[in-house]
UniProtKB/TrEMBL annotation:
Source species: Spodoptera litura
InterPro entries: RAI1, RAI1-like_fam
Leading EC class: hydrolase
Record-linked PANTHER family: DECAPPING AND EXORIBONUCLEASE PROTEIN, DOM-3 RELATED
Identification of the protein by name: Decapping nuclease
GO terms under cellular component: cytosol; nucleus
């Protein structure tokens, strides 16, 4: 039987763990890269309902799993040339930023349960969030008002972001919610090596002239370009008018916004404050360090990242136990040659994290055959 992991924040109050500033190693969807020229505190009037009836919505039942990240890893395997590690301690984690944000916020979460799968393959650990039954039901039964709220966020980005560094935004066209630009980062959290994808909103162009990326020169030139640019995160929020709303913002949204931005090396968030009719009336910039300072009564960044570090260690320990159970001690000395192995981790508010048994990868594949059959063949580790 696998051990449990307790999430009480009081357990994780030690100093902030070592976390290297994330390094960009790739990108996904360069054709969707956007630019932000107008960043500041001002009064505006943005109607987020503009062309809402013509918006191209994301399918509500869409389950992207790790598809984009897996395609990236396969396409760039030779360039990245990750070493094959025999030790589980040195195994790389592959995931999305959203999963890391979810885990980091868990010690302070009191509403949303989650479940995740860890897959050990070729000496690497792939982490993927899965829908709980409640979340799946909510996705499949979204009201028109729920869909409207989602679309407002995309429309707000259209008022601030342009397709070219020297052009103005054009909100007078329907939104396509499927357009995404993502960066792929690598970092270390204490001794854990992590590679993760993160959807990015846009590059700041308000401080200096910014050229377009030199895509004709290949990935390394584009990565060098992206690594020298400052990205900004865009958010919308209802006007804060009462103390309870302010408390809720500091306790919940500020924590999530801080985690998301910190994990992507973003220093500034631009928030559009709207009314109930979807009209943004004020823009306000936030430094993420200020979000943490103003919310210290409710949450502590040290706790969030110490817990994230502990969770990664917990996943490895559970995999060690599973390997010993199935393959004995000798299995730990030849990690890359082990058959695909998976575990399900589940958590509900007020409970410890539990391993709920083997995940049926055959019934619900996360690493698709096109990845399993080809990954690992394009690298020379000699």
């Amino acid at each position: 039987m696998q051990p449990e992991l307790h999430v009480d924040p009081n357990i994780y109050t030690r100093p902030f763990p070592r976390f290297d500033r994330p390094i960009i190693i790739g990108y996904i969807g360069l054709e969707n890269l956007k630019y932000a020229r107008r960043i500041g505190n001002e009064r505006v009037r943005y109607d987020l309902n503009l062309h809402l009836d013509k918006a191209i919505h994301r399918p509500q039942d869409l389950d992207v799993r790790l598809n984009d990240l897996l395609k990236f890893l396969l396409e760039h395997e030779r360039r990245l040339n990750f070493p094959i590690e025999n030790s589980l301690d040195k195994a790389k984690f592959f995931c999305y930023r959203g999963l890391m944000t979810c885990v980091a916020c868990t010690p302070y979460e009191n509403r949303e349960p989650w479940k995740m799968v860890a897959i050990l393959y070729k000496g690497n650990i792939f982490l993927c969030a899965r829908d709980t039954e409640d979340k799946l039901n909510r996705k499949l039964n979204m009201t028109e008002r729920d869909k409207q709220f989602t679309s407002w966020g995309y429309k707000f980005e259209q008022f601030l972001l342009s397709d070219e560094p020297d052009s103005e935004p054009n909100p007078d066209v329907p939104v396509d919610e499927n357009e995404e630009f993502s960066l792929v980062f690598t970092t270390h959290l204490n001794h854990h090596s992590i590679v993760y994808g993160a959807e990015m909103d846009g590059i700041r162009c308000d401080k200096e002239a910014v050229p377009k990326p030199p895509s004709e020169l290949g990935p390394e030139a584009v990565i060098k370009y992206l690594s020298t640019k400052e990205f900004i995160e865009l958010k919308t929020n209802r006007h804060i008018e009462h103390p309870k709303q302010e408390t809720s913002f500091r306790r919940f949204k500020a924590k999530k916004w801080w985690c998301q931005s910190f994990l992507a090396g973003i220093d500034t968030i631009l928030c559009g404050y709207r009314n109930d009719d979807g009209i943004v009336e004020e823009l306000k910039t936030w430094k993420i360090r200020d979000l943490a300072k103003m919310s210290q009564r409710f949450w502590n960044p040290n706790v969030c990242f110490n817990f994230l570090d502990t969770f990664f260690t917990y996943v490895k320990r559970c995999l060690v136990r599973e390997i010993k159970h199935k393959h004995g001690e000798k299995g730990l000395k030849n990690i890359p040659e082990l058959p695909l192995m998976s575990l399900m981790f589940e958590w509900s508010p007020g409970m410890p994290i539990q391993v709920t048994g083997n995940y049926s990868h055959q019934d619900d594949p996360i690493l698709w055959p096109w990845f399993v059959e080809n990954y690992g063949k394009g690298v020379n580790n000699a």
